[in-house]
Protein 1
Amino acid sequence: MPDLPAPALDPTTLDLFDRPDAAGPSPRAAALMAPVPGLDAGLVHEARPGYGDPPAPFYASPDDSLRLYQADALDLLRRMRDESVDMIFADPPYFLSNGGITCVGGRMVKVDKGGWDKSAGITGDHNFNLLWLDQCRRILRPNGTLWVTGTSHNIHSVGYGLQVLDYKILNDIAWYKINPPPNLACRYFTHATETILWAAKSAKSRHTFNYPLMKEQNGGKQMESLWQIPPPCASEKRHGKHPTQKPEALLMRIVAATTNQDELVLDPFCGSATTGVACARLGRRFIGIDREQEFLALSVKRLADEL
Ligand SMILES: C[S@@+](CC[C@H](N)C(=O)[O-])C[C@H]1O[C@@H](n2cnc3c(N)ncnc32)[C@H](O)[C@@H]1O
C-alpha cells in the first residue's frame, strides 16, 4: 500500500506548539545521559506541566511562511508537536570558544564566538546534544531528515548521539572552506573542512533526495560528498555580521536537495537565519529559533530583504 501523504499543516497558522506540557526526553535519551557532578548545564531532564499559551513569534513574514522565535531551543523544541517538521538544519554550538587562538584578517585573536559557544565539559556537551537531537527526532515527520554541522569539537558527540537515538546516517559531507585561515601554531594541518551529517529519522524513512537536481547542478555528474564552497561573501553580511554565519550557497544546496516546495524547515540555532534566506528563495516554510535578540534582529533584516 502506498504511504499516505503527511497531514497538511495549516500554512496560515503554523500551529506547531500544541503540547499542553513539554515533552520530556525519550526513555532512551534519559538512560544515556550521564550525570555531571556539580554541574547543571541548564538542562531540564523531566517533562514540565503547564506551559500555557503558544509562544509569540519574534517575527512572522506577511504570509506567515517565515517565522523566528527568541527562545532557548530546547525549551521550544519540547513544546512542538510530534511529527510536524519535514527537515531540520542545525548549526549548533561547536563548543570551541575555550581560550584557543585563531587568525582573523592576518591578526592573532582569541577564539570567542560568544558565551553560547563555551563548553560545559565533555559530558555536559554530550548531554546537551542528546537532548536536542532527541527532541528533533520526535518532531520530525516519519520521512523527515536532519542536517547537523560541526568540527571535531562536537561532531563525534553528535554522530554518536544520532546512532544511539536510532537515526539513520545518510551522508557525512566534507565542506571544504576554500582559503581557510592559516594555522598560527604551525603544529597542525590547517583546519580547512567542516563536517555536515545528514540523517533520516529512522532506517524505515523514505527520505527526500532531489537527485536529478543535484546532478544537474553538478554539470551532469553525480554530486559527491565533498563540497567546495567559499565562506560568506561581503554582500551576505551587508546587514551585519554573525560570528559563525554559514554561506548562502551551502544552505541553498541543502534545502534544494532534501525538501520540496512548501515543506516546513526548522533551524533550532538559526543565528542570522541563513537557512531562512534559502527557504524564502526556494519557496519552503521556515521556523528559526535563537536565544540572542541581536542575531534575530539581523535575521529579520535578511528575511525582509527576500520578500
Ligand atoms: C553556529 S551559530 C548559527 C549560525 C547560523 N547558521 C548562521 O548562518 O547565521 C549558533 C547559534 O545558536 C544560538 N544558540 C546557542 N545556544 C542556543 C540555545 N540553547 N537555544 C537557542 N539558540 C542558541 C547562538 O546564539 C548562535 O546564534
Protein 2
Amino acid sequence: MNLPSPANPTPGVSAHDTLEQWEEFVRQRYDPNRKKEDFRNYETATPGVREFYRLNHSLMTRDFVLARKRKYLPLDKMRMGVWEAMEQLEALVDDSDPDTDLSQIDHNFQTAEACRRDGRPRWFILAGLVHDLGKVLCLLGEPQWAVVGDTFPVGCAWSDKIVFREFFDGNPDAQVPELQSRLGVYSERCGLDRVDMSWGHDEYIYHVMKPYLPEEALYILRYHSFYPCHKENGYQYLMNPHDERMFHWVKEFNQYDLYSKSNEKPDHTAIRPFYEDLVAEFLPAAVNW
Ligand SMILES: [Fe+2]
Ligand SMILES: [Fe+2]
C-alpha cells in the first residue's frame, strides 16, 4: 500500500519526536506517585509539547471536527489488516528516527502483553493491541496535533481539567457564545455518543473497529485519551448512566496504556502467534480505514 509521507507541521520536529514527547508528557502528568501539588505543574512540558498543545487547542474547532468526520468516517480510504497497519506505524517511526529503540508497535505489544499478564479477557488484550492504530492518520497526511493529545468535547465550554486550557483562547470557537456555555449544543446527560470529541486517533480507530469488537473494547478505543474525564472527572454532566458503567473499562485500561512501557523490547517473533490467533478470532483479514 502506498501512503503519502507523514505530515510534519513543525519544522525541525519529526513526527516521531512529537509522538514520543507527548506520550512522555502524559505519562509524567498522570504518574500515580506524583504529589498533588505538582499535578498541574507543566514545567515538565518541553517546548515541543507546548507547541503541540498550542496548535491542538487553537485549531481544533467544532467545524474542523465535523469536517474530519465527513472526510474519514466513510472509511473509504483503504482496506488493510491489523498487521499491515502495525507495519505502517512502524514505518512512520523508522522514517523519522531510525535510532529509536522502542516504536509504536512495541508500545502496542507492551500494552497488550501487560493486559495478558494480568489475565484480562481476550477482547481487552486485543483492545490493548489495536488502541493506537488510529495513528495511521499521520500517514494519511494528518498533522500531529490532529492525531494525538488529550481529547475533549467540542461544541461546549472547555473544562478547566484540560491540560493547557489557556491555549483555547486562540480557538475561533471561543468567539461563538452558543459553543461556550456549559452544555453548548448538548443537553444534560445526553450520553457521550451524541458528543463530538476532538478529532484524533481514538475516534478514528473506534469507527474502524466498531463492527468487530464488543462495546467495552470500543469504549476503551474511543475514550482512552479523554483524560479530562477518565482521570479528572470532568464532563460528568454529558455522560449517561451507561457511559458511567462503561468507563469502568476505560479507567481499568489506562494503567496498561501509561505504565506498561519499559525499555525491554518485546520479542515479536515469540509473541506474534498468540496475537495472530487473537486478531483472527475477532477481525477479518482486512478492514476498512
Ligand atoms: Fe492512544
Ligand atoms: Fe497508547
